[in-house]
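From: lab user (bench 3)
To: helpdesk
Subject: output format question, protein + fe (iii) ion

Hello, I'm new to running complex predictions and I'm not sure whether the block I got back is the full result or only part of it. Here's what I submitted:
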Amino acid sequence: MKAKSLILATAVLAGMAAAPALAQQVNLYTARHYQTDEKLYTDFTKATGIKLNRKDANENEIIEMIRQEGANSPADLMITVDMGRIWKAEQAGILQPVKSAVLDKAVPAYLRDKDGMWFGFSARARVLVINKEKVKPGELKDYEDLAKPEWKGRVCARSGSHIYNLSLLSSMIATIGEDKAEAWARGVKENLARPPQGGDTDQIKAVFAGQCDVALSNSYYYVRLVNSDKAEDKAIVAKTQVVFPNQGNRGTHVNVSGGGLAKNAPNKESAIKFLEYLASDSAQIYFANGNNEWPVTEVPIDNKGLASLGNFKRDSVNVAELGRNQAKAQAIMDKVGWK
Ligand code: FE
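Helpdesk reply: Thanks, we reran it on our side. This is the complete output you should expect:
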């Protein structure tokens, strides 16, 4: 009996003694799946000695996992794309605020939560892709134009319930008000060349194929085609062009890839180090390039396709608004029947 408890005590002591020697680690739950992110993670470990354990899943699964794991969740960080989804995570109560002078300095205020619940680490724009043969320069200037009668049967867009369109509509609710935003959604729905189907790349391809003259797409889908070596992608790029809407007024709608600290993060300090690392120059370049997005800091990046789009004026409404207005946006989409 005595021997047994001695063994037990020794084991406990050994365990306790071993604890500080355990490598530091961070458990990252991510909905971003890009190959270049790999280098991002290995560089972090090389620089800090902190091991990164990654769990890949889609955003809904991640939110559900962290919620179900509750107080015992091993999750330290959640990374996802589009403010609408980050908002869902915040609403689900699975995040906690981070106070970091490094992050507050590096990430522009409109791309992060004022209380540090989440931070944007790369930016994408929701742009118009036009068929250059069908649309004259300057003919389409604003998102609002898509709802005008002259565009009847000429517009392609994915489902109105998709988070990218909900976030765009949310930004319009914030900037031009709910009534005008609703009228806009109704007008666009009326102007669709075909029932909403497929993703953003499918809309660009439909413009190329002549099914419509203009499509709504996130910028990185187009940049991916610009950077592609495939003949079919080059043909699409040759025939089409990106228009940044609303340059004469509020600017083009931008959204973020980003994330925050999990509510019960067991490795909080290391996790904050990783978030701060994501705002560093080298990480910004990988994080942005991984999905052909713009860095949120001023760091210059070498991305031919991205550079080809040039500079543009961004709508500087705080992206938090995109989250806050999601429910209103969905109600509008349902009401106007942009399914
Ligand atoms: Fe996407």
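A quick orientation on your result: The beta strands are 25-30, 51-56, 77-81, 95-96, 119-131, 155-156, 214-218, 240-243, 254-262, 294-295. Let us know if anything else is unclear.
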